[in-house]
């Protein structure tokens, strides 16, 4: 086959996929939206920054170093395109853009390793300056050596909440509080699945212990009420504790997130079949054990399809490459495939435990006051979505979008889409999967109108 | 619920297809006091009606279509009193602009020809146009200005008519696919996928690109094919562009158009069209077409080059061979009416088509000339061609 294999993404999954393809003698094109390889969790600092890996990645420093080093050894042998965003699919090939330069890249197959972003739950006041996603809070620290504030509150749910709070503590910023919507009882129920990776659980407990020792209050089973602020930024968070008492925590920034949301838009543009994943309460492309989609030339790996974390992503990237090689009847040892599947199965049990321990609090979306902004690009409120649901009789999210604009702005619903669907479903009294998902359209990210195709 | 156990539903008129034409016809039929059942396969106004550019443009139309377009323009201005909302109609004018001398001459000619049809256009040089509309680019010379045209939101208009029809007493049935249409000696008998049966002595087919097969089932085939117009929208910026700006170029790729909505985004379309599929109900947006549109948009409004495109889309539209719709009574079956195949220029006509079809169905006549849109025109041409 004359056309190359394209790997989209250069985090743990994309890197391992490219490495395995190269081992088999294929020279993949690797398209990376970041300026440097590493993805999110192993995001690299800019070239002239010199903090050591131990400071940046903590317990995962060895894995990060290995992933970066392995990539550097691949780099001369692959076609690596950093700072390049995939935005569309045409008959002529995959369309990407760097600055204003468009590339049309024909391909024989694509491995998508597009990762995930925070899953966001809107809240009164969440558009106040000083409110960040947990991922953005982490990027500020890792890539720019900045903190989002001097006394931040981290609020939401999921393991990232504690990891980010701990990383801030280590960087010299003591969080004002960590507020988790998941109760202790709920977390205990998820513990069984999580014990498949005891080391990770021990790390998590250590983060919590370090935070508590530093005097950071960790509250479980809370209900967020409002982020308070002035024009120039956040002043505090109003929340309800597990016993229903209203409390206020003063802070100058908020990092928030409720688990992750797979970045599935490219698979959607490529017309892969989707399914509703009850475990992660979101839509995702359908894949077999090894990452094959409904389309014979498209493979998926990592958090861009199943939210199983970075270690699983490395295995899944390699496995998707093996699947592709097998499909081309190139030799792949059965042992390798079995081994990778085994690794992923463990991670999968763990991910299931996590999803149970830190569930997506859909009921919070249903309870948002009407005046709360949900789609911040288009300034669409929860009340607007309810109006679309009832007075305008929208049975599904794309109809609600057409009539009231949620998800119609710059981010195309990537941030607000899941919460908007919950609000619509609650207003219609149906399960969230019945209201569907926002259709994906090109460009996947805003595209400059002065762009030009470059050969 | 067992639909088979139900008595067939009856009305004076059944409309198959709840796009803009069907929804508007249903609404106006109620003002004539006729009972109406509107059957829509998906949701009101979802296909071409909801995905088109949103032009409320008369200039440039086929001249004998102007009486219909003028009637429609009048209704656009009265939407709040008629249906209780304005569908974001902005009568900020419409300019057709040219960069080539030969296209300029065509505009001049059209401005003279359309006057007797009740449309007054103002011709401008490029400099005159730039004095009035400073966003227009330096390459533009001849400009034709239609001050009372404008644009509206296609996502809102047809659903608004659907809701108004329902409030006025029409039975609007969504998510119900028609599987067969028959006629006995008195009534049309419509069957739907969910087992529903609907009877009426009068029937309008207004199912857009899907109208062809329905008309063909009555022996009236029309040369029509589905295609997808290519649309896009930029990020928002302060509202400055009042008129719709459209290229009058005779070169397909150059034929782009744009409008700014009050929210600030610039909606655009034009140039090549792509394929559309009647089975999957999807029209393809070819991103290469978006790339082709970009330099031509920037030529009309150079400031656009600094913006970003945030979304593109298409929709399934029926294009008839002679670029005119199928509208009016059937040639073969009494009580049967058509309003489909509007070839990408139906949005402006929607309210007028609804009012005119309702009038025709309710009273048997209308002052609006519909002969050029008659379904039999191809048959007659064919017979003519076949004659020795």
Brief summary:
Chain A has 455 residues and is α/β, with parallel strands linked by helices. Chain A is 36% helix and 22% strand.
Describe this structure in words.
The complex is a heterodimer of chains A (about 450) and B (about 400). By secondary structure, chain A is α/β, with parallel strands linked by helices. Chain A has 3 domains: about 5-115 and about 260-355, FAD/NAD(P)-binding domain, CATH 3.50.50; about 120-260, FAD/NAD(P)-binding domain (3-Layer(bba) Sandwich); about 360-435, Orthogonal Bundle (Arc Repressor Mutant, subunit A), CATH 1.10.10. Chain A contains 14 helices and 24 strands. Chain A is globular and about 65 Å long. The model of chain A has no long low-confidence stretch (mean pLDDT about 95). With about 400 residues, chain B is of the alpha+beta class. Chain B has 2 domains: about 5-50 and about 155-225 and about 320-385, FAD/NAD(P)-binding domain; about 95-145 and about 230-315, D-Amino Acid Oxidase, Chain A, domain 2. Chain B is built from 11 helices and 24 strands. Chain B has helices at about 20-30, 50, 65-75, 80-85, 100-115, 125-130, 155-165, 210-215, 285-300, 350-365, 375-385; strands spanning about 10, 15, 35-40, 55, 95, 120-125, 145, 150, 170-175, 180-185, 190, 195-200, 200-205, 225-230, 230-235, 245, 255-260, 265-270, 275, 280-285, 310-315, 315-320, 325-330, 335-340. Chain B starts with 8 loop residues before the first strand and ends with a helix. Residues about 385-388 of chain B have low confidence and may be disordered. Chains A and B meet through strand 4, helix 13 and strand 23 of A and helix 7, helix 9 and strand 21 of B. Chain A: InterPro entries: BFD-like_2Fe2S-bd_dom, BFD-like_2Fe2S-bd_dom_sf, FAD/NAD-bd_sf, FAD/NAD-binding_dom, Metab_Enz_Cyan_OpOx_G3PDH, Opine_Oxase_asu/HCN_bsu. Chain A: This is NAD(P)/FAD-dependent oxidoreductase. Chain A: Keywords: Oxidoreductase.
